[in-house]
Design goal:
By secondary structure, the protein is of the alpha/beta class. The chain is built from 9 helices and 6 strands; from the N terminus they run ααααβαβααββααββ. It folds into 2 domains: 74 residues, no CATH class; 136 residues, Rossmann fold (3-Layer(aba) Sandwich). The strands form 2 sheets. Strands 3-2-1-4 form a 4-stranded parallel sheet, with helices on both faces. A two-stranded antiparallel ribbon has the order 5-6. The longest helix is centred in the middle third of the chain and has 20 residues. The chain is elongated. Bound molecules: nicotinamide-adenine-dinucleotide. The site of nicotinamide-adenine-dinucleotide has 18 residues, from helix 5 and helix 8.
């Protein structure tokens, strides 16, 4: 709502509210609270006393607080997002800021997207897939993503080329030997995921890391149930 003086009386005020409503998301698409807010604004020029208008606003607020499923969902999402930034109990928080080399296992939809994000952020990325064709497909997705950055003006051509130059690919997990962190994005198959975690935390990759960093410890990952080795 603008703060300008309104000379046209209640009709113009209602017109301003109608115009505001046109710009709001529909009630069904998450706009329930903002529509009710306009209702409270309309009450302010309905001829009621100031206190009655304040009471009406409070009543709308309390009604939304107790009955609105959208409000409930927003509060849930707010607290869920805060919880999601901390690892589950027993899993130490990993600070990736000191890492330069990232390994991504699985070059499908998720893996190529994750690899794109790390390349954009300046990391060296090794993308591993069990199949040569999977790797080619993932590389194709990733290159298109980075090329789109130039077309949409998010990156210069030089920056995009620089990002792509930090990508290497392999069909062998051994290529992850030098990775500071490894992210798994293979098929949704728990046995396969467990096998990969064991392989990555075994002699091949993690052993190299242990040589470089004295402090490693075995942790219990509640999601995968197996003990995996993890840096602290
Ligand atoms: N696609 C989504 O929108 C989405 C969203 C959230 C979570 N996820 C989860 O992310 C994970 C990956 O999903 P996706 O959609 O990217 O799958 P996808 O099928 O697109 O890709 C999986 C890739 O993993 C590769 N792979 C299989 N076994 C492998 C192995 N042993 N070593 C290396 N690579 C191997 C496959 O060749 C394939 O390229 C799944 O756990 C999925 O549930 C996916």
């Amino acid at each position: 709502m603008s703060k300008r003086n309104v000379e046209g009386g209640i009709e113009e005020l209602n017109g301003i509210c109608d115009a505001a409503i046109d710009k709001l998301p529909s009630k069904e698409m998450g706009g329930e609270a903002v529509h009710r807010a306009v209702e409270a604004v309309r009450a302010s020029f309905s001829g009621k006393s100031f206190q009655d208008c304040m009471d009406e606003e409070m009543s709308i607020f309390l009604d939304l607080l107790s009955t609105s499923k959208q409000g409930n969902a927003r509060r849930h999402a707010f607290f869920a997002e805060r919880v999601a930034t901390s690892p589950p109990p027993g899993v130490p928080k990993v600070d990736v800021r000191g890492s330069n080399k990232v390994g991504v296992i699985g070059a499908g939809t998720m893996g190529s997207g994750i690899a794109t994000c790390f390349l954009r952020a300046g990391y060296e990325v090794t993308l591993v897939d069990v199949k040569e064709e999977g790797l080619k497909r993932g590389e194709g997705i990733l290159k298109r993503n980075i090329e789109q950055d130039v077309k949409r003006g998010r990156a210069t051509k030089e920056k995009a080329e620089g990002n792509l130059s930090r990508l290497s690919t392999s069909t062998s997990l051994q290529a992850l030997n030098e990775s500071d962190i490894v992210i798994e994005a293979v098929f949704e198959n728990m046995d396969l995921k467990k096998r990969i975690f064991k392989e990555v935390s075994g002699e091949g990759c993690e052993a190299r890391k242990c040589e470089k960093r004295d402090e490693t410890k075995r942790i219990k990952n509640p999601y995968y149930e197996d003990n995996i080795r993890c840096q602290t």
